[in-house]
Amino acid sequence: MSETKNISDLQKETYEIKKMYNDAEDFLPLLGTDYVELYVGNAKQSAHFYKTAFGFQSEAYAGLETGVSDKVSYVLRQDKIRLVLTTSLVEGGEINEHINKHGDGVKVVALWVEDATKAWEETTKRGAKSFFEPRKREDENGWVIESGIHTYGETVHVFVERKNYKGTFLPGYKKWESHYNPEPVGIKYIDHMVGNVGWGEMNKWCEFYAKIMGFAQIISFDDKDISTDYTALMSKVMSNGNGRIKFPINEPAAGKKKSQIEEYLDFYNGAGVQHIAVATDDIVTTIDAMRDRGVEFLYVPDTYYDDLIERVGEIDEDVEVLRKRGILVDRDDEGYLLQLFTKPVVDRPTMFFEIIQRKGAKSFGKGNFKALFEAIEREQEVRGTL
Ligand code: FE2
């Protein structure tokens, strides 16, 4: 009896020591992505789209009915993924300017932290530009501390400390009850979020994540890895200490014609979030559900599947099942992954989603880049932007 207790105490102690060590190493412990906020032209209709097409559930709402007079926000949730869709109710101002310049797009990548005051202090001390200082918001369900810093383009990170809050989403929001609740499609958490930055700016922003946020570079691709006859890009993947937050950063590279990154930068008018990769445990079911609900995906030519097994080795899935749905496969040292990309989900050829299922692999589908870019080029050709 006492021996069991001792072992458990010892384990607890070891855990505490490890935790202290990790905390000391990682000055910005991030618990995960808290939410992603998009500024959109019509939040009500966007919310309907993400519910219907992506299977998000209604979670919270703030607007005129909750005492907010200048903007409205719908909060949607699917498993651990929270999307906030915000639009302005008045003329002028920051939200309208953002929409005018960028179209619908990601404004906030919010990060869940233990201590939002410390997160702000540590990052601004290291050179981050403040978006807003730590502030407390409270209601009858408790309180949260939020703070914010700027990152690439007009995108910002908001640190959210919510351990003392029991209510729906954040103070000021009310629960959003809806009679329309389409089934989830099985997406569970954000695997990674990719930023497109301008010519020659990739290293600057990788350094930002390394120096200011304590991230480490885990992968790098240059234009030799990622190029087709026409288009090229360079990419580095930055990850935080516990690996829960992964931000690949892309910049265009010179090719014969305009790269998809340049096309993004032109239409978004600068740097911004290119894609949000969401993880599923069953990509076939997820893709089938999303396609049934009208989501459009990028397709590679059928020939991609002819030598698939020679390229990636044995996989659990039936190649015909993947071929029929256009699902891509790539392998690294640790396993393989399945992935598929949507077409842009907004009017401009800017933001899209990736659906990813990892079976051991920790990489990002490098082996698929060429086939994928050729698929994107076919779309660019139709848009007249190649
Ligand atoms: Fe990705």
Task: Describe what this molecule looks like in 3D.
29% of the residues lie in helices and 33% in strands. The chain is of the alpha+beta class and 386 residues long. It folds into two domains: 30-175, 2,3-Dihydroxybiphenyl 1,2-Dioxygenase, domain 1, CATH 3.10.180.10; 187-383, 2,3-Dihydroxybiphenyl 1,2-Dioxygenase, domain 1 (Roll). A hairpin with a 6-residue loop joins β12 and β13. The protein starts with a helix and ends with a helix. The site of fe (ii) ion has 6 residues, from β10 and β14.
Summarize the structure.
Helix content is 29%, strand content 33%. It has 386 residues and is of the alpha+beta class.
Can you tag this structure with a few keywords?
single chain; alpha+beta; 2,3-Dihydroxybiphenyl 1,2-Dioxygenase, domain 1; 2 domains; 9-stranded mixed beta sheet; 8-stranded mixed beta sheet; disordered N terminus; binds fe (ii) ion
State the end-to-end CA separation: 72 Å
Category by helix and strand content = alpha+beta
Please state the CA-atom Rg, rounded to the nearest Å: 22 Å
Biggest beta sheet attributes: 9 strands, mixed
Share in helix: 25-40%
Mean pLDDT: 90
Strand content: 25-35%
Query: Which outline best applies?
Result: globular
Which fold does the CATH topology of the largest domain refer to? 2,3-Dihydroxybiphenyl 1,2-Dioxygenase, domain 1
> At the first level of CATH, what is the class of the largest domain?
Alpha Beta
The count of strands amounts to 17
CATH architectural arrangement of the largest domain: Roll
Q: Determine the number of helices (DSSP H or I, runs of at least 4 residues).
A: 10
Number of structural domains: 2
Low-confidence stretches: 1-7, 17-24
